[in-house]
Design the sequence.
């Protein structure tokens, strides 16, 4: 029968009292279940009878210098001699401070930059691992002297299933702490406050005639229009009442307005104007305004043509739900969809309706580039994937990650329920985090991925140039040069086209009138 004495053995130690059981039977009992083999389980065996009656205390060590799954007799008690230790071990030894080099089974799948796998060249099935979570686990393995063994798994569901049935000690890639998951397994200490974020295609600039209008704000254009109307009225008044010029140089109001508009567009004066001081002051002030206005407009226009105005893009969940037609997530997103469906938030309920499960982040982000949809995943994972597969040679990217997360939350490693080695794992986790190594590894891996992607693109470009298929928009150094496209100059082209149409219409009208009117 089970007997648990908190005063004697503590709340985390199982003590089984048996009578006259041989050593082989004791071994069988202590190795028969997870509780005895992994927990701090002990057997108190009542031996002998009469004056020779004694009690022996046995402890099971899953990892020891003598090997794996060893039984130690740690103490005895006799009526005559009392209590005495029979082993170098403590009565209640810590079983998981030292694994003595034995392997520890873990489950993980490639999830860069947290966990990545690469086959060693020319070495059959040998695999090397990298990533922030692998480095974290490797640091803990060195501290507690064990070897990592990655149990083969097919998908993320199997990764968690093997933890639940205790075939794996740890799922060594972080998972979000969700209420429904706590029924299946426990978690290590929280070490990653990662949110579920969305990636979305960067909006492209579409050709539009307003390219000439955007360099100045609405208020500036309205004020300029009002000033021109006022100036036009003053010009008409001055031309009609002024008598300070010869009849042969007389300037009608229409021509004066065209000249005034021409100065606003940077043209010189081509006609004689009244020579009165009032006219000169009026015209001089207008020309100063036209010079400042024209300089500001030309400067802003050049800047806008090289850095066009991009359409607004969603940066949080509310904005995303207004524009997205579909939202994808990898297979483990089923837990999140169930969580969102049970929420009281209207945004989460709408998100659950739009969510679709896709096989991988690759499919989700490829679909996001082709349709108005987003992909949900962790921020660092998506940033790493974008840096690796959706980065251009100039460093710009086709996708972006929203500024605000969809579901900020805590993340940790899944562990079996009541795992006795959790304390040792948590101690290593906290030590690495406090040293700042986890953040350092993450930033380093992202930068390495970006550099590798740009290097690969430059090599591809150099190969294309060598074959004579290089794009003329890039120079010999591999740097992209800025070329104005229809997106930038549609406004001037449309203005020129309208001018040509008006000129041809006027010419056609004049030509037709010449048959009826004799000049």
Sequence:
């Amino acid at each position: 029968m089970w007997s648990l004495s908190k005063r004697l053995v503590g709340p985390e130690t199982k003590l089984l009292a048996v009578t006259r059981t041989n050593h082989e039977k004791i071994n069988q009992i202590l190795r028969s279940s997870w509780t005895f083999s992994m927990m701090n389980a002990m057997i108190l065996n009542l031996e002998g009878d009469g004056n020779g009656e004694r009690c022996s205390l046995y402890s099971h060590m899953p990892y020891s210098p003598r090997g794996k799954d060893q039984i130690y007799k740690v103490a005895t008690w006799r009526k005559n001699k009392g209590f005495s230790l029979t082993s170098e071990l403590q009565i209640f030894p810590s079983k998981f401070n030292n694994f003595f080099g034995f392997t520890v089974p873990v489950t993980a799948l490639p999830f860069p930059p947290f966990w990545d796998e690469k086959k060693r060249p020319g070495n059959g099935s040998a695999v090397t691992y990298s990533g922030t979570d692998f480095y974290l686990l490797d640091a803990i393995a060195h501290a507690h002297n064990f070897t990592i063994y990655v149990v083969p798994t097919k998908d993320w569901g199997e990764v968690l299933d093997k933890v639940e049935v205790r075939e794996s000690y740890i799922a060594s890639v972080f998972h979000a702490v969700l209420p429904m998951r706590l029924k299946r397994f426990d978690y290590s200490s929280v070490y990653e406050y990662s949110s579920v974020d969305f990636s979305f295609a960067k909006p492209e600039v579409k050709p539009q005639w307003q390219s000439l209008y955007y360099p100045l704000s609405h208020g500036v254009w309205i004020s300029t229009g009002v000033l021109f109307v006022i100036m036009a009225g003053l010009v008409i008044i001055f031309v009609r009442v002024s008598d300070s010029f010869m009849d042969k140089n007389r300037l009608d109001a229409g021509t004066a307005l065209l000249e005034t508009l021409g100065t606003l567009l940077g043209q010189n004066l081509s006609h004689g104007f009244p020579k009165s001081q009032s006219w000169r002051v009026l015209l001089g002030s207008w020309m100063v305004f036209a010079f400042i206005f024209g300089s500001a407009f030309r400067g802003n226009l050049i800047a806008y043509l090289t850095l066009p105005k991009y359409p607004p893009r969603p940066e949080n969940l509310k904005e995303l739900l207004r524009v997205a037609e579909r939202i994808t997530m990898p297979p483990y997103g089923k837990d999140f969809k169930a969580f969102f469906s049970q929420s009281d938030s209207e945004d989460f309920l709408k998100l659950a309706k739009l969510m679709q499960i896709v096989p991988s982040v690759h499919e989700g982000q490829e679909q996001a580039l082709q349709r108005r949809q987003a992909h949900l995943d962790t921020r660092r994972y998506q940033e790493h994937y974008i840096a690796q597969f959706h980065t251009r040679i100039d460093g710009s990217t086709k996708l972006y990650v929203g500024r605000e997360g969809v579901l900020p939350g805590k993340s940790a490693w899944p562990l079996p329920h009541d795992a006795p080695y959790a304390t040792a794992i948590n101690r290593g986790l906290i030590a690495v985090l406090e040293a700042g190594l986890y953040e350092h590894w993450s930033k380093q891996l992202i930068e390495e991925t970006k550099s590798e992607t740009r290097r690969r693109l430059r090599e591809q470009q150099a190969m294309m140039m060598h074959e004579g298929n290089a794009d003329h928009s890039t120079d010999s150094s591999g740097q992209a040069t800025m070329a104005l496209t229809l997106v930038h100059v549609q406004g001037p082209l449309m203005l020129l086209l309208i001018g040509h149409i008006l000129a041809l219409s006027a010419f056609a009208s004049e030509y037709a009138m010449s048959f009826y009117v004799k000049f």
